[in-house]
Amino acid sequence: AQSVSQHNHHVILSEAASLELGCNYSYGGTVNLFWYVQYPGQHLQLLLKYFSGDPLVKGIKGFEAEFIKSKFSFNLRKPSVQWSDTAEYFCASDYYGGSQGNLIFGKGTKLSVKP
Amino acid sequence: NAGVTQTPKFRVLKTGQSMTLLCAQDMNHEYMYWYRQDPGMGLRLIHYSVGEGTTAKGEVPDGYNVSRLKKQNFLLGLESAAPSQTSVYFCASTNPGQTYEQYFGPGTRLTVT
């Protein structure tokens, strides 16, 4: 079955540290990939998405992600985190190329940024 | 433009009680989804709909029913609530296309005692 794996359950960083959150997906065909963020007490918001073209995708709030097809990976990065980045981050891929828009989500990574 | 709204925001049920969660979207989206979010489990798809009058099962459909009588609304029903259904429920919507970016509602926190 198709799956999305996130390597870290909880990451703790100090402000200004660099961030990289791992994400791997299992489907070998064409996929669309997403990173969503959930701030405490809020709903999920889209950070960035990849569907084709340049494998380095830039999103909101200084986040970026790199799609590496050979590694089935879509890692999220930010050069310098802020306290306001404290949130839970979810990687997702569409199911079998997105025929019905269903997304498979990873289990999420909680990021805590210390001021 | 409110996007995706959900009612109620919070609810406490006793085991065996029933309830309906309402999701409404004003973006004229064709596809709508219900997810549940549990700690350490991410989001899991309960049911979804690809158009008015159509529904389909997702990953964890047992114990839930859904209806899509109007394009803008997607209802999630619990006929006989169980403690295992204590969760946060999110609705989402999108339009068919290349990227299927989903827009999420604010969630409903349900506790079943």
Helix % of chain A is: under 10%
Summed up, the helix count of chain A is 0
Multimeric status of the protein: heterodimer
Silhouette of chain A: globular
Instruction: Give the radius of gyration of chain A.
Output: 14 Å
Q: What would you call the structural class of chain B?
A: mainly beta
Describe this structure in words.
The complex is a heterodimer of chains A (115) and B (113). Chain A has 115 residues and is mainly β. Helices cover 0% and strands 50% of the residues of chain A. Chain A has no helices and twelve strands. In chain A, the strands form three sheets. In chain A, strands 2, 5, 6, 10, 11 and 12 form a six-stranded mixed beta sheet that branches. In chain A, a hairpin with a 4-residue loop joins strand 8 and strand 9. In chain A, 40% of the residues are buried. Chain B has 113 residues and is an all-beta fold. In chain B, the strands form two sheets. In chain B, strands 2, 4, 5, 6, 9, 10 and 11 form a seven-stranded mixed beta sheet that branches. In chain B, strands 1-3-8-7 form a four-stranded antiparallel beta sheet, with no helix packed on it. Chain B is globular. The termini of chain B are far apart. Chain A binds chain B through residues 9, 32, 34, 36, 42-46, 49, 51-52, 90, 94, 98, 100-103, 105-108, and chain B through 31, 33, 35, 40-45, 48, 50, 56, 58, 90, 92, 94, 96, 98-102, 104-107.
Short account of what is shown:
Chain A is mostly beta strands.
What are the defining features of this structure?
A: 115 residues, six-stranded mixed sheet, four-stranded antiparallel sheet, globular, B: mainly beta
Describe how the helices and strands are arranged:
The complex is a heterodimer of chains A (115) and B (113).
Chain A: E1 4-6, E2 10-14, E3 19-21, E4 23-25, E5 33-38, E6 45-50, E7 56-58, E8 64-68, E9 73-78, E10 87-94, E11 103-105, E12 109-114
Parallel strand pairs in A: 2-12
Antiparallel strand pairs in A: 1-4, 3-9, 5-6, 5-10, 7-8, 8-9, 10-11, 10-12
Chain B: E1 4-7, E2 10-13, E3 19-25, E4 31-38, E5 42-49, E6 56-57, E7 64-67, E8 73-78, E9 87-94, E10 103-104, E11 108-112
Parallel strand pairs in B: 2-11
Antiparallel strand pairs in B: 1-3, 3-8, 4-5, 4-9, 5-6, 7-8, 9-10, 9-11
